[in-house]
């Protein structure tokens, strides 16, 4: 049993990190904004953490705080102009931001450019990661019933109406962008101190797409949805690995295709994600 | 400098052709079709397969283009139509197009393998044309000509034909168009056919131009395509054309003057600058699209 | 006199027989050689898939030969890490804790290795890298990490020297991929080697791995009229770079690193590949018996081999040799100790040994493309 745990320890850790990342995307989705900047924020947090650990003697808790704080601060001057844009334009602007951040790290020789930083001591333990996930979930749970949470929901439903009701939509959206940035930065620092290394390759467009997909598949309308999505999609390749080992099916493009099909199925038939599955099943039973 | 200008026009023509299809779908459906780059890639592979089966290029290319258009129709039916009535259709449309892109890439990977392929030597005659101190290959000239031709055809189609008028009507307001008797479903399908056919054409030309076909070849172009349609204005065909060439030239001169490390940053810099200063781009409509 | 000669002959025959007798480990409780499990973490899907697939073929060929030749049986478990470090880590942990392998081959990518190898080091499992070429962050993780892949630092300076001897160039224009570990590390080495050899780097341009259009960079480099173009790229980009350079009228020499050493390069570059020089870690044209055996085995599998399969094939043979050096014992410690004893092993890469730092040590080669094939430059 212990060996089984050891064998999958990193998987549990990764589910936690991906949960934090999915929640970071959820932060802005919860007020109706599709921000795809989080791979960039994650990179900022990861490099901040790695550089502090490797080059200064900063204590681990402070490293984590700095890694979450810096992206959260960067989010403000980014958000002020960019959150004015609607829908797809916001998404595209944030994609652009993410790419600019990645290119910065590719070209920054102090951080070794594409070679990245290696031999980072492993300070992110499994329980620490999950404590962070728990804390993030708690924050979102508290938001849900609160006045702020209702304001966010109103903004999500109809931003113009919310504004005319007197809600300061700009500062709410900015706050969520900043919160998401902080979570992504924290996740980045944790990942850097889990996998011993950090490189620009892990922070491209594909990464933020992964985060978005996990948030949406899990369910972007409730705070624990992203956790479900992260858990499901992070373990899916390993489930498929076991399946192909037992059935002799060759791993290959088949796995990638399955990822795409699962995503398509969820988007088409289960728009509120896995989190809405129990409710949907209950509905179907009631109708019968 | 002259050679760099030619380089810029060359790559710009392909960016423009790719972006035109991209922006057409956005104009009509208000959705970013992230599977556009996957159809771009599939068309290239299809043309390659046909040429390797000893079909001449001038047959393989149109066949691949039409096939790409048909795949676009399937894409629309499977991934976009079911989502049309949803409130968050832009986000869910984005995600479902992403899912389809993943599926298309997986199919290409399974059928053609991960390695990079190229058209067999001799697919296109190897001739060089000298323009002053600069040189261009016959292939490059033909590619730019075909790209311009296809874009002109699309522009005429949209401006002069009934289908074009219907597409523009649906782009303006699907509800109004339906009231006026337009078969919105069919028009959208036609728009997807055109968009994907052009994307496919861009794919075949790209493969010929740079001798590289692989399942992930669309990824690099996808993000550049975004910069182009933003610069040109979402939904504007002439905008995509102008912006495509502009971006190609801008990138090339950035490399010539400052070095290539900054090249991609320039594209995204332009993207962000346009979004902040003038979100509707060069030729885009300022009015908000009504549903 | 005749008696002395005959007795000498008999003694020689007996001595010779003894050397040829198969080793049978009779000491200890482990009487019969058990199956030794080795895990291979390869990128079979994802961006590095073409390398991983070559490695899989090379390993399979070596496995068949080794198990047919007798001695301890090797069971090879192959898993895909999808070119990501997350799955690389999971695969390593599965190998170490569930499958309880004695050694691990791979992973394909240096980035994944930096993330996964420390786990093996911590658990005492020896890892033999067969394609990691990053200068730092691989073997310096610890004493369980070994590699048979020469880094660019071991290949390029020699190649540059030989090229300059033959062609005598004084200035160079350099093009390299700046967003990939392999090509960036290669450039760092090239930069230093150029300085060391008194060659002036008059132009430097970069490209991203996803790029396919290099016209702008090549125009800029060629305009400065360097004596030679030096390129740090992987095979796929390299083919397009070389084609486009020739297209633009560049007739001068082109010199590449290890990334050029692939049949895919020649196939995709076509006639443009003629005359291109490459510093390589595997001389594909080597007539040595063991290289010819490797080529034949790959031909039987219908695979056109490149250095990835050559290094993977060699890797399994190195592990087998380590097991032999450990007296046929296959525990994690035994194999680690055995690896340290591997010396001058005959491989398709040449006579192979490990350096003191557990890196690869064998003669690199400089090759030139002639008549559509790689040939060694003397």
Annotation keywords:
heterotrimer; A: 288 residues; mainly alpha; B: mainly alpha; 11 helices; 3% strand; disordered C terminus
Fold and architecture overview:
The complex is a heterotrimer of chains A (288), B (291) and C (378). Chain A is built from 12 helices and no strands. With 288 residues, chain A is mostly helical. Chain A is globular and about 55 Å long. Chain A starts with a helix and ends with a helix. With 291 residues, chain B is mainly alpha-helical. Helix content of chain B is 73%, strand content 3%. In chain B, helix 10 crosses helix 11. The longest helix of chain B is centred in the N-terminal third of the chain and has 28 residues. The radius of gyration of chain B is 19 Å and the shape is globular. Chain C is an alpha/beta fold and 378 residues long. In chain C, the strands form 3 sheets. Chain C has a 7-stranded mixed sheet with strand order 7-6-8-9-10-14-15, with helices on both faces. In chain C, helix 6 links the parallel strand 6 and strand 7. In chain C, helix 3 runs parallel beside helix 4, helix 5 packs across helix 6 and helix 11 crosses helix 12. The interface between A and B is large, with 38 and 43 residues.
């Amino acid at each position: 049993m212990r060996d089984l745990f050891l064998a999958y320890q990193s998987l549990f850790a990764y589910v936690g990190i991906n949960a934090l990342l999915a929640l970071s995307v959820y932060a802005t989705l919860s007020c109706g904004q599709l921000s795809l900047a989080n791979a960039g924020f994650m990179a900022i947090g990861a490099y901040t953490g790695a550089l502090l650990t490797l080059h200064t003697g900063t204590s681990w808790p402070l490293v984590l705080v700095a890694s979450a704080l810096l992206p959260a601060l960067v989010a403000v001057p980014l958000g002020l102009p960019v959150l004015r844009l609607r829908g797809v334009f916001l998404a595209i602007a944030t994609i652009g931001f993410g790419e600019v951040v990645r290119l910065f790290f590719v070209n920054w020789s102090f951080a070794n450019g594409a070679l990245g930083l290696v031999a980072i001591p492993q300070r992110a333990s499994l329980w620490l990661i999950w404590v962070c996930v728990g804390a993030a979930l708690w924050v979102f749970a508290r938001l849900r019933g609160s006045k702020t949470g209702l304001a966010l929901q109103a903004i999500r439903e109809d931003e113009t109406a919310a504004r005319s009701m007197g809600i300061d939509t700009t500062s709410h959206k900015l706050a969520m962008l900043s919160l998401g940035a902080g979570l992504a930065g924290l996740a980045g620092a944790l990942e850097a101190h889990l996998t011993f290394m950090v490189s620009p390759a892990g922070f491209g467009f594909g990464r933020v797409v992964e985060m978005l997909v996990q948030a949406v598949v899990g369910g972007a309308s409730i705070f624990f949805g992203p956790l479900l999505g992260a858990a499901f999609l992070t373990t899916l390749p390993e489930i498929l690995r076991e399946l192909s080992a037992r059935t002799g099916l060759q791993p290959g493009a088949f796995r990638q295709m399955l990822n795409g099909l699962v995503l398509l199925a969820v988007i088409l038939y289960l728009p509120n994600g896995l989190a809405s599955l129990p409710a949907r099943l209950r509905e179907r039973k009631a109708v019968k | 400098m002259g050679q760099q200008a030619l380089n810029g026009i060359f790559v710009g023509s392909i960016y423009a052709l790719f972006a035109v299809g991209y922006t057409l779908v956005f104009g009509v459906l208000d959705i970013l079709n992230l599977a556009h780059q996957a159809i771009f890639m599939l068309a290239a592979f299809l043309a390659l397969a046909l040429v390797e089966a000893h079909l001449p290029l001038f047959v393989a290319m149109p066949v691949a283009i039409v096939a790409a258009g048909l795949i676009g129709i399937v894409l629309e039916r499977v991934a976009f139509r079911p989502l049309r009535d949803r409130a968050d259709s832009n986000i869910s449309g984005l995600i479902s197009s992403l899912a389809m892109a993943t599926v298309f890439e997986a199919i290409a990977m399974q059928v053609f393998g991960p390695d990079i392929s190229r058209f067999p030597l001799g697919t296109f005659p190897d001739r060089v044309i000298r323009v002053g101190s600069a040189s261009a290959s016959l292939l490059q000239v033909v590619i730019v000509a075909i790209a311009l031709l296809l874009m002109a055809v699309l522009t005429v189609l949209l401006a002069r034909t009934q289908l074009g008028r219907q597409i523009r009507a649906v782009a303006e307001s699907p509800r109004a168009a339906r009231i006026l008797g337009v078969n919105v479903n069919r028009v959208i399908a036609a728009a997807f056919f055109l968009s994907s056919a052009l994307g496919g054409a861009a794919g075949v030309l790209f493969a010929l131009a740079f001798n590289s076909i692989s399942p992930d070849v669309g990824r690099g172009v996808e993000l550049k395509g975004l910069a182009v349609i933003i610069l040109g204005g979402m939904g504007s065909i002439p905008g995509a054309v102008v912006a495509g060439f502009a971006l190609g030239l801008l990138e090339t001169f950035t490399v010539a003057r400052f070095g290539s490390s900054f090249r991609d940053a320039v594209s995204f810099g332009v993207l962000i600058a346009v979004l902040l200063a003038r979100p509707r781009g060069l030729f885009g409509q300022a009015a908000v699209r009504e549903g | 006199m005749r008696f002395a000669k005959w007795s000498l002959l008999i003694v020689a025959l007996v001595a010779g027989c003894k050397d040829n007798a198969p080793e049978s480990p009779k000491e200890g409780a482990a009487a019969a050689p058990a199956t030794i499990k080795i895990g291979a973490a390869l990128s079979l899907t994802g961006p590095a898939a073409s390398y991983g697939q070559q490695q899989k073929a090379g390993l399979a060929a070596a496995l068949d030969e080794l198990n047919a030749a007798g001695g301890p049986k090797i069971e090879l478990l192959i898993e895909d890490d999808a070119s990501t470090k997350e799955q690389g880590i999971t695969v390593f942990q599965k190998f170490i804790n569930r499958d309880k392998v004695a050694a691990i081959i791979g992973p394909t990518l240096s980035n994944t290795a930096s993330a996964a190898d420390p786990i093996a080091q911590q658990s005492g499992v020896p890892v033999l890298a067969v394609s990691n070429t990053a200068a730092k962050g691989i073997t310096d993780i610890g004493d369980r990490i070994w590699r048979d892949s020469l880094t660019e630092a071991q290949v390029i300076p020699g190649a540059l020297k030989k090229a300059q001897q033959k062609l005598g160039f004084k200035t160079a224009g350099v093009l390299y991929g700046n967003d990939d570990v392999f090509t960036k590390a290669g450039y760092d080495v090239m930069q230093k080697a150029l300085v060391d050899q008194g060659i002036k780097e008059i132009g430097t341009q970069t490209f991203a791995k996803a790029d396919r259009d290099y016209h702008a960079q090549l125009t800029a480099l060629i305009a400065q009229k360097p004596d030679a173009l030096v390129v740090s790229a992987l095979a796929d980009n390299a083919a397009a770079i070389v084609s486009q350079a020739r297209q633009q009228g560049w007739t001068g020499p082109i010199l590449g690193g290890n990334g050029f050493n692939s049949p895919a390069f020649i196939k995709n570059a076509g006639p443009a590949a003629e005359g291109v020089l490459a510093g390589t870690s595997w001389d594909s044209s080597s007539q040595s018996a063991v290289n010819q055996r490797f080529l034949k085995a790959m031909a039987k599998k219908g695979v056109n081999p490149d250095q990835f399969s050559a290094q993977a094939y060699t890797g399994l043979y190195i592990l087998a040799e380590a097991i032999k050096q450990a007296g046929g014992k296959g525990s994690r410690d035994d194999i680690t100790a055995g690896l340290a004893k591997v010396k001058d092993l005959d491989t398709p890469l040449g006579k192979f040994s490990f350096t003191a730092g557990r890196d690869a040590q064998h003669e690199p080669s400089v090759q030139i493309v002639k008549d559509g094939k790689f040939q060694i430059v003397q």
